[in-house]
Amino acid sequence: MLFFIAIAAFSATFLGGLFALYLKDRLHLILGFSAGAVIGVAFFDLIPEAFEIGGSAYSFSTIATTMAVGFLAYLLIDRLVLLHAHTDDDEVHHARGNFSAGSLSIHSFLDGIGIGFAFQVSSALGLIVAAAVLTHDFSDGINTVNLVLKNKGNRKQALRWLAVDALAPVAGILTTFFFSVEEATLGLLLALFTGFFLYIGASDLLPESHHKHPVVWTTVMTVMGIAVMYIVIRLAGV
What we know:
Number of domains: 1
Helix content: over 70%
């Protein structure tokens, strides 16, 4: 069963990335959608899971503080290390694209770990968690490709990161056969990535989507991205 779920996760992520590459001429609209999707995942998926999983060992205040730490940590790295500014330096753009795509890939890896651990508890729980992950894997592929392309990456670089992101949940599932992570620790990791995702969506993807492009349509796409993630996450939780 886990083998087929791993293949499904890989396929969904890769197809999402190919979709983004195919429509790269409409990148500003896809970036608008991606901004909404990333923010939607943070609000409707990561935040509830962080509180639910980590709440047994940590207070709500601790989990919320970890989210803020994630946001501030990403901000400091972006501003001080990756030089978040309007610059034409390709190396700076490539570094920011790689860092952002890498963050999404690590999140996908944690998704795989979540699936594997859920199946260790019971098959029923594993299927529920797998369904939740698969619903946004397609969007993960879109977001990964978009982050590379909008930071002046080429098709080859986008495909390379797409392959990493698609393989990440598979690797996460496989690692659960060899080690275990305390549930509470996983909750804090999800809280940390909540901060990352909120920063990527609000401070990176969202402003870039309407830069030199019509604000109305990119805003519509952002709202659609949030709405789509809300619907699929709620349906997966049924």
